[in-house]
Design brief:
The complex is a heterotrimer of chains A (about 220), B (about 525) and C (about 375).
Chain A: E1 4-11, E2 21-28, E3 33-37, H1 44-52, E4 59-64, E5 67-70, E6 83-86, H2 98-103, H3 111-124, H4 140-152, E7 158-162, H5 170-187, E8 191-195, H6 198-204, E9 207-210
Parallel strand pairs in A: 3-8, 3-9, 6-7, 7-8
Antiparallel strand pairs in A: 1-2, 1-4, 4-5
Chain B: H1 2-9, H2 17-58, E1 59-60, H3 64-70, H4 79-90, H5 95-104, H6 118-144, H7 146-154, H8 159-170, H9 172-188, H10 191-195, H11 201-212, H12 215-240, E2 258-259, H13 262-298, H14 303-335, H15 338-348, H16 355-372, H17 374-379, H18 393-418, H19 422-429, H20 434-445, H21 447-463, H22 466-471, H23 479-487, H24 496-519
Parallel strand pairs in B: 1-2
Helix pairs in contact in B: 1-16, 2-3, 2-6, 2-9, 2-11, 4-6, 6-9, 6-21, 9-18, 11-12, 13-24, 14-18, 14-21, 14-24, 16-18, 18-21, 19-20, 21-24, 23-24
Chain C: H1 2-39, E1 59-64, H2 69-82, E2 85-90, H3 93-103, E3 111-115, H4 117-125, H5 135-140, E4 152-165, H6 177-180, E5 189-190, H7 197-210, H8 212-225, H9 234-243, E6 248-252, H10 253-260, H11 265-273, E7 274-277, E8 287-295, H12 302-313, H13 315-325, E9 328-329, H14 338-343, H15 354-358, H16 360-370
Parallel strand pairs in C: 1-2, 1-3, 5-6
Antiparallel strand pairs in C: 3-8, 4-6, 4-7, 4-8, 4-9
Helix pairs in contact in C: 7-8, 7-16, 8-16, 10-11
The chains are: A alpha/beta (about 220), B mainly alpha (about 525), C alpha/beta (about 375).
């Protein structure tokens, strides 16, 4: 059974503009890391935002882990979807330090459990020494890892990553790519990743989907 | 909001013959007078505010840290008090001329120092209103501009072109919010204009009311003023339509000022000092001196009550304003529709209408409300036809809220403009609901804007006069009304003590909040 | 759907805020009620056991456009003597009138106190007032200083006089208001803005005496003779005389008194260098204006209000007003301060103060027409 099913989704920003995503469908299996490739402006970020519930599709349905998230009559709010997202520039809360950032999504856990989970995540992304730092005191790569840890901490059913490497310099990219791949494998995460760089996708993903401006065509 | 609609409805009431007189004799001159005052004051205040903000943020020079907050202080001095102070100071019996005459035997020809003119009014209004622009622009530059400005510096831009090409366009939303506040203030000003004998729309409104007892025509004039203001908003919105400087990046860090050395640095210090002296130290010193002359006669035990009244009224109203401002700014942002924008604008338009006209609107609505509720009152045993709401402090507080929504709202709005949406989105993907996200993420990040809005509003309300005069309950005096009581009677020296206390309290609240900001 | 939610959120919070405001209003109200009952209404309920003092108590509510410390002192003394609490709202006269109008039958105001006969008359013609019936007052205040239907009672008067530079002007050159509009004073005259009520009432009185046409010519003459555009208040005209901007000015006696008694040496010097001239003594009389207390039609404490007027027009209060504020008393038995005595007796216009109000719109029209700023 498909873990994530996106069916015939159409989306546009404003009524009079042409759709950014037109009748797009795809599926993901559990534990699969899928890359979405496309030039900028091709609507790939919008696709992630639709899955996350930050935007509302005009048509179509999205199902995650056997639960209908959105279709013609139904809309599950962002906070109830159990989706993790790493934003393009990470969106780390500047007023919170690393630990507080990671713990942010763990409000439902008891204090002890929360502490444990944060520790676990810090170890996973190897930032134990930076626990009390604030985002602006971290390097780009470190910020990315915090963002990843924060998204993974509440154990989301799916992780969405928007251009995870765009803010990193090239020399770091290779090592971070493999690092990320390992982390995702370790966490057995289903992951939808968006990039304009085919090399990123190749290095991390199990398979890729190319999305184009006019019509999306899926390739296996 | 009802009271503002009430004022607008004034347009639809039938005209009477007074309106013809108003149109014939007053309108052109008075509209021109207002336009002149608004244009010049707005321009100079923007210039002064932005230049000072950029100096303080972008460069290091002696006393920079001091000026960073000290230049906000002129806000604590109500323009009408500044006007009285400056004109008395420069008058024949004032300190300057009498010293020259008595010590040096120099007699200035009459009219040498002419503060009571349109130039004088522009001078006063600019000096005491520029901190709006300064404060909002400074906060913006400090928090949000680092990467752009450092980039521009790296690209080898000269100081001047950096300022013109980068700083100005970048801080445009903050400058505009600041200038809007200045413009509103100038439009609604009655104190300075009437004292200096300026002809403005605001004085025309009162001339129709007080001179011809024609409240309807006065309200009609105010309604036109309101339309102009809303028009200004629409134009501003239209101009900005395609240039949303909504912060695109969440990577913000404080801007590091550049070293400034030698003459340039001392020049900057001197410039800031002159402005600070003129806009704060000089009038304050003069008022303190006058207070020592009249203290024994003017001090009354009820001054403590006056202070408590001033503070508590302003604090309650400000708290409510900040809550409403936060909620509505947030809603407007989430809906981002023109309707929400329109509603939020109407809410803030109260700032540009003279206080007394807002007061009439509030009075009308409250009395109507009391009449509606009269059965309830009877049931509560308050007697037939009792006025309950309109005799309570809540009427005044509501008046404050309507009139001063703008200061709070503008601060919050520009705060939100700087706050990338992605934080809220991140919070929500982490399973926090809308409301939780607001409290956990947006509110802490907006702290600066909330604090700024709070100071601006509370100081504004404490200075407020016409609304307080008309809407207060029995025996409710504030420092502002006491100052008025003396000043209206040309007893400027006697007005010094309440003025001083008023400035003092405003000053303390400004300092307190500067302190809080620092600790953070 | 998300949007609908936001609307609901917004509506809810507005309701909440309204409740909050109402709550704080109610809270204050309760306080007000508590205060009031502490001072007055205790007479009902458990008051039987209370000391008799509260029985004579009660209150009186005043809307006043007079803003002098001496008034507050007199109210305090009144409360001390009678146990009647005086509640005050100060404001600008036209605004207070508007407030009373809008409050209608529910108005809490008992008395409306203001300066200027025109305004008092406006309140009367707006049917906001009722007659004051009191023999005490009739004996204390001469009929010409009361409304003809006793809707308001005069409290004090001030004269609008000519003030001149002692070193440059010989008082014998001065004669009448009309004379000030002749070429003789071109570039030498000063007066405050025509938007000020004192000037409008002066003009109204001249319309009433000389007719509209002559009054308009007079106003045009005044505007043409001005040494500078009108600025500042009455005191500023006196200062400008001493500074040499002009030689003569139109000014209220009351401000001359205040200058002479100023705490500031420079202001006292100014007062020494100017002379006071009561114009039109040979002809129509000097223009005076009046402060008065008017009884509100829907007053709920009418008896207390009348008591207060009786108190304020009694010789004791009248002497105090005159001494501290340099106004002329309405009660002939009151004692005058030295300065006012030194000016001696003078003849006033003796026209009905109601004319100031009735002719006010005409006066406004004239000053706008002739360009007296």
């Amino acid at each position: 059974m498909n873990f994530v099913a996106i069916k015939h989704v159409t989306f546009r920003y404003a009524r009079r503009q042409p759709p950014v995503i037109d009748d797009f469908s795809c599926t993901l299996n559990k534990g699969e890391v899928v890359g979405i490739l496309g030039a900028s402006g091709s609507g790939k970020s919008s696709l992630l935002r639709l899955v996350a519930g930050l935007e509302l599709p005009e048509k179509g349905s999205i199902m995650i882990d056997g639960m209908m998230m959105v279709n013609d009559g139904l809309y599950v709010d962002v906070e109830n979807r159990g989706v993790g997202m790493v934003f393009q520039d990470y969106a780390l809360f500047p007023h919170l330090n690393v630990v507080e950032n990671i713990a942010f999504g763990l409000h439902k856990l008891k204090r002890a459990a929360r502490k444990e989970r944060v520790q676990e995540m810090l170890e996973l992304v190897q930032l134990t020494d930076y626990a009390k730092r604030y985002p602006h005191e971290l390097s780009g790569g470190q910020q990315q890892r915090v963002a990843l840890a924060r998204a993974l901490a509440p154990k989301p059913s799916i992780l969405l990553m928007d251009e995870p490497f765009s803010s990193l310099d090239a020399s770091l990219k290779t090592s971070i790519r493999s690092e990320l791949r390992q982390i995702l494998r370790k966490a057995e995460m289903t992951c939808l990743l968006v990039s304009h760089d085919a090399a990123d996708i190749e290095a991390i993903c199990d398979r890729s989907i190319r999305i184009q401006k006019e019509m999306a065509e899926a390739t296996a | 909001m009802l009271p503002i609609l009430y004022v607008l409805l004034g347009l639809f009431r039938p005209t009477n013959e007074n309106w013809q007189i108003v149109k014939q004799y007053l309108l052109t001159d008075y509209v021109l007078g207002s336009a002149k005052l608004v244009l010049f004051t707005g321009f100079f205040a923007a210039l002064l505010g932005v230049v000072l903000a950029w100096l303080v943020v972008g460069y290091t020079f002696p006393l920079r840290r001091f000026f960073r907050w000290a230049l906000v202080l002129p806000l604590a001095v109500p323009p009408y008090i500044a006007a009285y102070t400056y004109s008395t100071m420069t008058s024949y019996t004032g300190f300057i001329q009498s010293t020259l005459r008595n010590q040096f035997d120099i007699k200035l020809p009459p009219g040498t120092i002419e503060i009571m003119s349109s130039k004088g009014a522009i001078f006063i209004m600019t000096l005491f209103l520029f901190p709006y622009v300064f404060m909002l622009t400074r906060t913006f530059l400090e928090r949000q501009s680092a990467s752009y400005i450092e980039n521009a510096r790296l690209l080898g831009r000269s100081r001047l072109s950096l300022f013109i090409k980068v700083v100005l366009p970048l801080s445009r939303p903050a400058i505009i919010s600041g200038v809007m506040l200045v413009v509103f203030e100038v439009f609604s000003d009655y104190g300075v204009a009437s004292y200096f004998g300026m002809q403005t729309v605001s004085t025309a409104i009162f001339q129709t009311w007080f001179g011809m007892y024609d409240v309807d025509s006065a309200i009609r004039l105010a309604a036109w003023l309101l339309i102009v203001i809303i028009g200004l908003f629409v134009i501003e919105r239209f101009l900005r339509r395609n240039r949303q400087f909504n912060a695109t990046t969440s990577q913000s860090r404080p801007l590091k000022p550049q070293q400034m050395k030698g003459i340039a640095a001392w020049g900057a210090t001197a410039f800031c000092s002159i402005i600070f002296l003129l806009a704060f130290i000089v009038p304050l010193t003069q008022i303190i001196v006058w207070t020592t002359w009249t203290y024994h006669k003017i001090w009354r035990a009820d001054f403590i009550d006056l202070m408590v009244n001033s503070l508590s009224g302003a604090a309650i109203a400000t708290a409510v304003i900040m809550i409403i401002a936060l909620l509505s700014a947030r809603t407007a942002r989430m809906l981002s529709s023109s309707l929400a924008y329109g509603v939020s604008r109407l809410m803030t338009a109260g700032y540009a209408i003279p206080g007394a006209i807002v007061a009439i609107g509030v009075l009308a609505v409250f009395i109507a409300l009391d009449q509606r509720l009269s059965t309830v009152y009877e049931w509560l045993g308050k007697g037939e036809g009792a006025l309950v709401l309109s005799l309570s402090l809540s009427m005044l507080i509501t008046g404050y809220i309507i009139r001063f929504m703008a200061t709070g709202y503008n601060a919050i709005e520009s705060g939100y403009e700087k706050l990338p949406r992605v934080y809220t989105e991140a919070s929500r993907t982490l399973g926090r609901g809308n409301t939780k996200s607001f409290f956990k993420v947006e509110l802490p990040l907006l702290k600066g804007a909330v604090i700024t809005g709070f100071i601006l509003t509370i100081v504004e309300i404490m200075k407020e006069l016409p609304l307080t005069l008309l809407l207060r309950p029995f025996n409710f005096d504030t420092l502002a009304t006491r100052t008025y009581q003396y000043a209206i009677d040309e007893r400027i020296y006697d007005a010094a003590l309440p003025s001083l206390l008023l400035i003092g309290i405003s000053l303390i609240s400004v300092l307190l909040i500067v302190r809080l900001e620092k600790e953070k | 759907m998300q949007q609908r939610r936001n609307y609901v959120f917004l509506m809810l919070t507005f309701v909440l805020v309204m409740a909050l405001i109402a709550g704080c209003g109610a809270g204050n109200n309760n306080n007000g009620g508590a205060n009031k009952s502490a001072n007055g209404t205790k007479t009902t309920g458990e008051a039987t056991a209370e000391e008799p003092e509260t029985k004579t108590g009660g209150e009186v509510n005043i809307y006043t456009a007079r803003h002098y410390d001496v008034d507050a002192d007199l109210y305090a003394k009144f409360t001390e003597q009678t146990g009647i609490k005086v509640n005050v709202v100060e404001g600008k006269a036209p605004e207070l009138i508007e407030k009373i109008k809008r409050e209608g039958t529910s108005t809490p105001a008992d008395l409306f106190i203001t300066v200027d006969g025109g305004i008092l008359n406006t309140a009367k013609t707006a049917e906001l007032l009722q007659p004051v019936v009191s023999e005490v007052i009739d004996a204390q205040v001469p009929a010409e200083l009361r409304d003809k239907d006793s809707h308001w009672i005069g409290l004090s008067t001030r004269a609008r006089v000519i003030v001149y530079a002692k070193d440059r002007v010989n008082p014998s050159e001065l004669s009448t208001y009309e004379d000030l509009a002749t070429d003789k004073w071109k570039g030498k005259l000063m007066v405050r803005s025509s938007t000020n009520l004192y000037n409008l009432s002066l003009l109204a009185s001249l319309i009433s005496i000389n007719g509209e046409k002559e009054a308009e010519a007079w106003a045009a003459g005044i505007a043409a003779n001005l040494a500078r555009d009108p600025e500042g208040g009455d005191r500023d005209q006196a200062k400008a005389i001493v500074a040499g901007t002009g030689d003569v000015a139109i000014m209220n006696t009351y401000y001359v008194g205040n200058l002479a008694a100023s705490d500031v040496e420079e202001e006292r010097k100014v007062a020494e260098q100017i002379g006071v001239f009561f114009p039109n003594q040979q002809t129509t009389g000097t223009h005076i204006n009046i402060s008065g207390a008017a009884l509100i039609k829907h007053s709920k404490n009418k008896e207390n209000a009348i008591k207060l007027i009786e108190y304020l027009t009694a010789p004791e209060a009248q002497s105090i007003i005159s001494k501290t504020n340099f106004e002329f008393p309405v009660n002939k038995a009151a004692e005058l301060p030295e300065l006012l005595k030194s000016w001696g007796e003078f003849k006033s216009q003796g026209i009905d103060f109601a004319a100031y109000g009735e002719l006010n719109p005409k006066a406004v029209e004239i000053v706008n027409k002739v360009g007296w700023k």
